[in-house]
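Example S7 (structure tokens).
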């Protein structure tokens, strides 16, 4: 089993930055693809970003491309999401997720992931 714990959320003004962290425990996730999803009130959970097990391949939702950067440190069993130029529409609960196989066809869907964190709230004020 893999346990994921997110941190780094908070309240920030539009245009500001936040860095989310996701620490994994239970077993190493160095061979797992990792990702971030978010869910705003009244909306479905949506894909934000994903990263391959070795960090070589990164994928982003169009809405965050150029503003967010996903990265990982396998030695620390941790994945990060650097969020810059934040907008009010980025307000959501952000979830870290992991999966043991990296099928391209399911990368952008929450059903394609095996493990989830409890989420961290990000609020961007205008």
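Recovered sequence:
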């Amino acid at each position: 089993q893999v346990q994921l714990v997110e941190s780094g959320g908070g309240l920030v003004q539009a245009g500001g930055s936040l860095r989310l962290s996701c620490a994994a425990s239970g077993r190493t996730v160095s061979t797992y693809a990792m990702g971030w999803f978010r869910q705003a009130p009244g909306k479905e959970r949506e894909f934000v970003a994903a990263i391959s097990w070795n960090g070589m391949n990164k994928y982003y939702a169009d809405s965050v491309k150029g503003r967010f950067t996903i990265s990982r440190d396998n030695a620390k069993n941790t994945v990060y999401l650097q969020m810059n130029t934040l907008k009010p529409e980025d307000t959501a609960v952000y979830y870290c997720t992991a999966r043991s196989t990296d099928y391209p066809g399911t990368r952008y869907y929450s059903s394609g992931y095996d493990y989830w964190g409890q989420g961290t709230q990000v609020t961007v004020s205008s």
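Notes on this example. The chain has a mean pLDDT of 96.
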